[in-house]
Fold this sequence. Notes:
heterotrimer, A: alpha/beta, Rossmann fold, 2 domains, five-stranded parallel beta sheet, four-stranded parallel beta sheet, 13 helices, disordered C terminus, B: alpha/beta, TIM Barrel, eight-stranded mixed beta sheet, eight-stranded parallel beta sheet, globular
Amino acid sequence: MERxxxxxxxxxxxxxxxxxxxxxxxxxxxxxxxxxxxKKVPTLRGITVANLFFEPSxxxxxxFLIAERRLSxxxxxxxxxxxxVLKGETxxxxxxxxxxxxxxxxxxxxxxxxxPHYLAERISASVINAGDGAHEHPTQALLDMLTLRERFGxxxxxxxxxxxxxxxxxxxxxxxxxxxxxxxxxxxxxxxTFLPEWFEDYGVKITYNLKDAIVDRDVIYVLRIQRERxxxxxxxxxxxxxxxxxVNRDVLNRYARKDVIIMHPGPVNxxxxxxxxxxxxxxxxILHQVTNGIAVRMAILYLLSGIGSSGGVE
Amino acid sequence: xxxxxxxxxxxxxxxxxxxxxxxxxxxxIVSKKKEETRNIIEGKGLYLFPAFIDIHTHIRxxxxxDIENFESASKAAVAGGYSTIFMMPNTxxxxxxxxxxxxxxxxxxxxxxxxxxxxxxxTIGRRGERLTDMRAMIECGCIGFSDxxxxxxxxxxxxxxxxxxxxxxxxxxxxxxxxxxSSDGSMNExxxxxxxxxxxxxWVSEASVVIRDILIAEYLSSPIHFAHxxxxxxxxxxxxxxxxxxxxxxxxxxHHLLLDEDNVKITDSNFKMNPPLRSKRDRxxxxxxxxxxxxxxxxxxxxxxxxxxxELEFSLAPFGVIxxxxxxxxxxxxxxxxxxxxxxxxxxxxSVKPAGIFDLKTGMVRDGAPAxxxxxxxxxxxxxxxxxxxxxxxxxxxxGWDVYGRVVYTIVDGKVVYKEGD
Amino acid sequence: xxxxxLLDRDGVRxxxxxxxxxIINRNRKNIKNICIIGIRNRGDILAERLAKxxxxxxxxxxxxxxxxITLYRDDLTTIGPRPLIGxxxxxxxxxxxxxxxxxxxxxxxxxxxxxxxxxxxxxRPLRIELAVLVDRGGRELxxxxxxxxxxxxxxxxxxxxxxxxxxxxxxxxxxKKEEYGKV
Lengths: 314, 422, 183
């Protein structure tokens, strides 16, 4: 198989099918490292990784931190509020400072879409996208695909429905692109305000009807709904949303296959998009997703470190 | 002051001349009677056109003198072959009173390179609430009124503006945008912006204001001019309005003719402007309208911004690109050389037609006509690079382009104000 | 110019047999405590074969494991695009055991160094002994094998290629002029 030659992980869009497989295969090995007595390998010793989080996120940040430390990398955290950007320190300034500190890799989460792409063009370190606005969240999509591969063996032909605020979801976009590259059948579902017709251009079916997204599907992937959306007139109220789109036991009993599985990128708004008993029930692979998250991030750090500023000459 | 231009290819669509010859200028006008002079410009290999007129330029003085002041804007204009530019009022403070108008006129006169006509703000502070002292401003030299940068949001205020201008012969220039629909968008709303997760500016944001203004103008029997039209829908609505008898004029920018949303590099805000680069379909419609003669002018919407602002991420950078120094060459290379429109049509769109909208005289090779000319070497190929700009700003989407057509001389009121290499 | 055949199929099998005998002789009292761990790729195959021989001779089959040393390599910063990693599988605890570490070719010693670092992260063996099919000289680290099949100094411009049935469909050891690329 072709060796992984990308310098950055900016999105699933930029990855080939083979590259996705390389990442998932490597992640499985990394998972075994996590099972060992000494959960550490010296692979990234001497490599410095900066975690640049402009949006608050304990989960993803911690997942990256654990991944980095398991590989013996040195880590630094730069957590900034968006207001500090407005006060004058631009992303570019922050990045240049990191470069002056000889950071090898930057993990960035930002609310401005394509800021990782912007950064990658301007600094010499490797850039990993930990979520850029509504655009992409590649590590999430990869850990989801790993979870699906472990459960089903093969993603080809798998029937996956993604339900929720698709418009504002980077997880939905990355996962859709990734699943389509691997030959899955994807349906997107949500209220029309969250699902403009342009999503059909991805090559998927869209529906405003929850039932159509549940009947005969293998996987139901549920997205978070943010309360702020009703203020911006995307939703009349959460009540409306819950009534017509919440995935609960009743809906599953009536429409879903018995062997359906439920996934969610977390954290779950229990009682909103997902009923609590569904989130915690036997259908759910949510905790598997979390474990796989660390493994996938380790895999990416490992694979990208070969083309970083420190080396990469063959 | 006397100038003799020898052996130049005279190309003047207004007077129908297209032949090699000499042009003699004395005291700011063209003179059929040649006299002796040592001021000779050798025009062999060059084309002489009426100098261009840009009816939509932004100068950042007062408020942003480091970004573009009267000197740098004038230098940029003449380097691009312009003898005349209209200055938009969105300075800080804005040009919303006759004192400010006088300031602009004086500064322009002091710099003395290009003719600068102020477009006054239609409302105080461009806030869309109270009308400015338009008659006093006209008396001081305003050529038009606009809140450009912003639309006039309140239809009742638009009505008052058009009513108040009745009888003055002066037009209102609308920046057609519904800010509620454009919201926090930074590029054209469509499949591409959706894939990038970038909020978009839908075409209906422009078209809905175009039709509103057309109907109000019709109701008042007033003329109206639209700045930077970018969508197919707007063109259809303008045609509809014209059929109903409304006197509508509008301008199109070079970048909307030459680029569309597929050209947008999301890591480079030199592709970010308002209205944004639209769909291929919109662009095709604009070109078709250009070919058919529906368009009234090509105007650059020259909008300088400093590097530290354009260097920001796409969503955060300000809207706008410069255009005075690249307009002719890019359009000549991509449209005339490639047979999309003829040379005479391009020259008309850049001089004769904009002059016609605002009752200005263009340079013409006719006895007594104003000596506003540009001499261009059409064969000369050059690369658009930052170091070539006379503007203080560098935010152009055409950086790196190889183009034909280099301005060699620009003559304004019979004086050479630019020579290649300045 | 030509390739030199160092060992043919019978030669390989014979040497594996003699390695196994040596291991048995030196550890006669502790066969039950042995664990054989091969370094991927091919070291793991040899490990399996040695275990089978030992079983045939003694009736005791030592547990067999395999480790992939990619994550422990010391040359990762210079080799460019990352090699894909294989799994490391050790079926038993190695605490207080005698670990026979097996590799096909011993050269600079760096692979063994990485393997030792990895093993030590898995547990604390009583002792580790090194068994190799071919010792080609050219050591860059002070690593010394306990059991050697064949010793032959090979110039650094040449490559020692080991072929084993399970992986390559044929058996033998050939010295070639090609570029080194251990896969």
